[in-house]
Design brief:
Elements (H helix, E strand, L loop, with lengths): L53 H16 L6 H31 L12 H33 L2 E4 L6 H15 L6 E3 L13 E8 L9 E6 L7 E3 L8 E5 H7 L9 E12 L13 H11 L5 E7 L4 H11 L6 E4 L38 H7 L2 E5 L5 H12 L3 E8 L7 H11 L3 E6 L7 H13 L3 E3 L6 E2 L3 E8 L2 E9 L11 E8 L2 H15 L11 E3 L3 H17 L5 E6 L5 H13 L2 E6 L16 E6 L4 E2 L2 E5 L8 E5 L5 H5 L1 E7 L3 H17 L4 E4 L5 E3 L11 H14 L1
């Protein structure tokens, strides 16, 4: 017989301390609108639906990241990190999105996407926007961040700016650390153009033979292995100021050492970005693990999709590169500064706490803080954690305690992305060695983490864990852990359902939700999910969980339609959603219809949003905002005011509203059953993010993201700062 569930106080943050950002007045904190007294009649002639281009919307997000690099309110070294993130984002954008559109063009695809742009026009606009973004990125580095760093005693030098002492030090460093590991590659009839690795640093050198001035100049390439640090501190044990030199500057300075008897007439660094998508026909791949290993080895042979090169390179050399890379000019970016600003991320190691965010340690004061009583606690109450403000440790404790508890018979776990020294993986291995039945669903195709996941899959298999790779044609993206425990004569199930990955490292950087429950209706659906993923089930039935690719899309449309019907009938209706991306056309059309019916809709979307808000007769009632701040907003949560269950329906989960999440991934969206936890999501999470007027940007119908208007006497308010202050207060109380 199941233990009776006790009523508990909500595990939500207390009010912020007096020094924290202000809390909204009571009348601004109410989410539920007053009931309408008469139905709203949609226009008989609705305006034509409009959609933003997905790629251009993503570039608008990266523009918002760049804004943070230019925002003097952030500590200086944090601004440098934002600038580095812009480069990292653009890398992935070209490797995946741009390469995909190029393939469409090469395949003769002309059909426009929902925004009306065909592949060729999309590429043209992408190039224009990226060119402007990169120009502003380097302007930010050269004219804002570099001078500000110098003023703080962190100086970046070029080879021409070195003092005699610094030149001697750099020359010695080159001979000891760089020269032994570089191999010059000549370019001539007997030396074919080398295969250059994706995103690797290279230096192209033009040479002249003084003995034969009539012979045309010679060309060679110096590929730089990844093992060498790209940012070199000059005389690191020396006095201040701290001085840095990019590795490319050192190699260009000393390039002549590789070519005795020749005169170096030019040296320029360059970098090639290649198509990095994996091509795998899963129906043809008998062993998915081995197939992905083979594909990873083939990535270096991907087609070039971008060339980044320093300004000033000779036209003849430039043409040689384009010919061999089979690239046209629109995919070339001549940069006024160092290549790959992502390498600036290493400045985070500089010991200057005054130039960084004040330290914050996630707090572990939830009801699950005592690992020995985790299962006892969950029998009495559900628990919701808000990372990174709440520690990720209870998630690790949940799996580790299950591994060691003699009453636990089975553990079932999804793994999409995890850390290199994953305590979750170690706990699963320990559980298997302790004789428990352990099943791990490892997603081999988690982009850019394929190699790591292959490694963990092998280790788990060697330890006796049942490792499976999910459904053919679908990534297993859901975040779910299920524990089966014998308690007396009963078997009871406990579940953790999340919005983020089982990765303690990223859990300190991403905002996510973790929901722990022992409710039979939810754990039963979770068990059904694992059975579906490990066995055979053509049409599984989920009563309470929304699971893609089975019922998530349909149920999402039904929930939006119900709010639409309620508004049209004069009943209360309200939708609030928080996610990473909104792309799915059918869902956007449903939201447009809901808006026309009078439903007030707030969308908090971090990245891509193809919905156009604020269009008269189409989306008058829809507001869209984005928050980019100290932490990466990653949680997905959904609020439907009048879902027909006598109370608002509040959901959270792993899925964005994108076709890939609805139809090509295994996703889980779960209802938050505990009333107190639902209230925390509505009255804290949503209200604070809708109140943010510091880091929030509002999307307008013209595609621009503008700062949220602030009343003249209104103080700045940051939702992330509020949650940090609230967590700190919880730890002190």
């Amino acid at each position: 017989m199941a233990t009776k569930r006790k009523k508990t106080r909500p595990t939500k943050p207390p009010a912020a301390p007096a020094t924290a950002a202000p809390v909204a007045p009571a009348d601004e904190r109410v989410i539920t609108p007053k009931p309408r007294h008469r139905p709203v009649t949609p226009s008989a002639k609705p305006v034509k639906a409009a959609y933003f281009n997905r790629e251009l919307s993503w570039l608008a997000f990266n523009r918002r990241v760049l804004e943070q690099a230019r925002n003097a309110k952030h500590p200086l070294l944090e601004r440098v990190k934002f600038l580095a993130i812009v480069s990292s984002n653009l890398d992935e954008f070209f490797e995946i999105r741009v390469s995909g559109i190029i393939q469409q063009v090469e395949s003769g695809v002309t059909e426009p996407s929902v925004d009306g742009l065909g592949p060729k026009e999309s590429l043209r606009r992408i190039h224009s926007v990226v060119a402007s973004l990169v120009e502003d990125q380097y302007d930010c580095w050269q004219n804002e961040l570099m001078p500000a760093l110098a003023a703080e005693g962190i100086v970046f030098k070029t080879a021409a700016e070195l003092t005699p002492f610094e030149l001697a030090w750099v020359t010695s460093y080159f001979h000891e650390q760089v020269y032994p590991v570089l191999t010059p590659l000549a370019l001539d009839q007997s030396h074919p153009f080398p295969q250059l690795g994706n995103k690797t640093l290279n230096v192209i050198v033009s040479l002249d033979n003084p003995a034969t001035p009539e012979v045309e100049q010679l060309v060679a390439i110096l590929p730089v292995p990844r093992i060498l640090p790209r940012l070199v501190p000059i005389d690191p044990a020396g006095a201040t100021p701290q001085r840095f030199l990019f590795l490319s500057e050192i190699i260009k300075l000393c390039a002549g050492e590789f070519f005795p008897g020749y005169r170096v007439t030019g040296a320029h660094s360059f970098r090639v970005t290649r198509n990095s998508d994996l091509y795998i026909d899963e129906e043809e791949a008998e062993n998915l693990l081995k197939k992905i290993e083979d594909e990873l080895r083939n990535l270096r042979r991907g087609a070039a999709v971008r060339l980044e090169i320093e300004e000033g390179v000779d036209d003849a050399i430039f043409s040689t590169l384009l010919d061999h890379l089979d690239l046209s000019h629109e995919y070339v970016f001549r940069l006024n500064g160092p290549l790959n600003l992502l390498r600036l991320m290493s400045l985070a190691e500089v010991d200057r706490p005054d130039l960084k965010y004040p330290p914050f340690t996630p707090v572990n004061v939830s009801p699950l803080r005592d690992p020995a009583h985790i299962f006892e606690t969950l029998r009495a109450q559900d628990v919701l954690l808000h990372h990174p403000y709440d520690s990720f440790q209870p998630v690790v404790d949940f799996v580790e305690q299950a591994a060691r508890d003699p009453q636990v018979f089975a553990i079932k776990q999804t793994l999409y992305r995890t850390s290199g020294d994953s305590p979750i993986v170690r706990a699963l291995i320990e559980a298997s060695k302790n004789g428990k039945q352990v099943t791990a669903l490892v997603e081999l195709k988690a982009r850019f983490d394929e190699a790591n996941n292959i490694q963990w899959a092998k280790q788990l298999e060697e330890a006796g864990v049942h490792v499976v790779y999910g459904l053919i044609g679908h990534k297993t993206h859901c975040k779910c852990s299920l524990v089966v425990r014998r308690e007396g004569r009963l078997l009871r199930r406990y579940a953790h359902l999340g919005t983020g990955n089982y990765n303690p490292k990223t859990a300190k950087l991403y905002t996510d939700l973790s929901y722990f429950t022992a409710r039979d209706e939810l754990t039963s659906d979770a068990a059904n999910l694992f059975n579906t993923l490990t066995g055979f089930s053509r049409e599984p039935v989920f009563e309470h969980l929304l699971v893609a690719p089975y019922n998530l899309h349909r149920r999402t449309q039904e929930l939006i339609q119900r709010e639409t019907d309620n508004a049209a009938a004069g009943r209360p209706a309200r939708i609030i959603v928080k996610m990473n991306s909104l792309v799915d056309k059918a869902t956007i059309d449903k939201l447009y219809a809901a808006s026309r019916a009078g439903v007030k809709i707030d969308i908090i979307v971090r990245g891509v949003c193809c919905l156009v808000p604020g269009v008269k007769g189409l989306s008058d009632n829809i507001r869209v905002r984005s928050i980019v701040g100290r932490y990466l907003e990653h949680a997905r949560a959904f609020y439907f005011e009048n879902a027909g269950e006598g109370e608002p329906l509040v959901l959270a989960g792993s899925a964005d509203w994108m076709p890939r999440n609805f139809f090509r991934r295994v996703e889980v969206v779960y209802p938050v059953r505990d009333p107190a936890l639902r209230r925390w999501i509505t009255d804290e999470l949503f209200v604070m993010e809708l109140q943010d007027n510091e880091h929030a940007r509002e999307l307008h119908a013209n595609g621009g993201y503008l700062p949220v208007p602030r009343a003249a006497n209104a103080p700045p308010f940051s939702a992330q700062s509020y949650f940090i202050a609230a967590a700190t207060q919880r730890a002190l109380s």
